[in-house]
Amino acid sequence: MTDTPTRRAVLVTGAGSGIGAATARRFVAEGWQVALNYLEDGQLATAQAIAELARAPGQQAMAIKGSVTEDSDCVAMVASAVAAFGRLDALVNAAGISKMVPQADLHGLSAADFQRIYAVNTIGPFQMARACAPHLKATGNGAIVSISSRAALSGGGSSMAYAASKGALNTLTQSLARVLAPEVRVNAVCPVLVEQGFVERLAPESFAERRAHQIKTSPLKRIGHPDEVAETIYWLISSAAMMTGSIVELDFGMHLNAV
Q1: What 8-state DSSP symbol labels residue 34?
Q2: CATH code of the domain covering residue 107
Q3: 23, 107, 114, 155: most buried by Cβ count inside 10 Å?
């Protein structure tokens, strides 16, 4: 009788919607053990539906509620994943928030807005990486990918606070890549506007305008889909052995416009 192979395990935060859900689905399809973190009760059904797709022999997936802003939740999520899977090979930081405020509206953002957005987009990934680090190092081949944004590179996006928080996440990515090497690789992806994201959910009219602008101005004349971002994330974790500390632009060539 052939032994069931030991399956690698990943924890995906923000897996209840958008890119996080697409990423979790991608890992499940590849036979990984997957812990799907979600925050809002309304996201539980999506997380559970993805977890139920894990049907390969010896494969498990589970939904875990928790807030990345609470360090105790981060520690508990990691402990639950390791207890269930016996190991942890990868972390995907997909949880993120914003507030839709025009860049020129300097009075549209408060200190509390900045603190709330930084708590999720920057401090959360740090706390998750810290909680995961011992287990990722133990594998000798661990990986972290954080979902940043093109806003981190351009200073644009849904609000100034969002762009700043993602810029800080890029810096955090490089810092973690240094200190967790050589056992753990740490990278980030910077997508442009994608379907099924928070902009589409929070501001449909703004999404329509941004979508039209991206299709008009990007060299590839396209808008992104969560599955496309998930594909790059999966590649960075499973195959990109030469990459760490990299900030990968997924922008349909929009950076080429800066000439």
Answers
A1: E
A2: 3.40.50.720
A3: 23
Looking at the domain assignment, is residue 143 inside a domain?
A: yes
Q: Which two tokens stand for residue 206?
A: 């703004």
Helix, strand, coil shares of the chain as percentages rounded to 5? 50, 15, 35
- C-alpha dihedral (222, 225, 231, 232), degrees to nearest 10: 60
- Contact in structure between 120 and 41 (CB atoms under 8 Å): no
Query: What pLDDT score does 2 carry?
Result: 44
Measured distance CA(95)–CA(225) in Å, rounded? 17
Of the residues 38, 118, 162, 234, only one is catalytic, namely 162
pLDDT tens profile 13-55: 999 999 999 999 999 999 999 999 999 999 999 999 999 999 9
Residue 2, domain member (yes or no): no
State the pTM of this model.
Answer: 0.94
Asked, for residue 215, whether it belongs to a domain, the answer is: yes
Hunting for tokens 């990918």 — which residue is that?
145
In this structure, what are the phi and psi dihedrals at residue 249, rounded to the nearest 5 degrees?
-85, 125
Domain range enclosing 77: 9-254
Q: Is residue 89 part of a domain?
A: yes
Q: How far is residue 93's CA from residue 168's CA, in Å, rounded to a whole number?
A: 14
Burial class (CB in 10 A: 0-12, 13-18, 19+), 176: buried
Question: What percentage of residues in the chain have a pLDDT greater than 90?
Answer: 84
Q: Count up the domains in the chain and report the number.
A: 1
Q: Is 234 marked active-site?
A: no
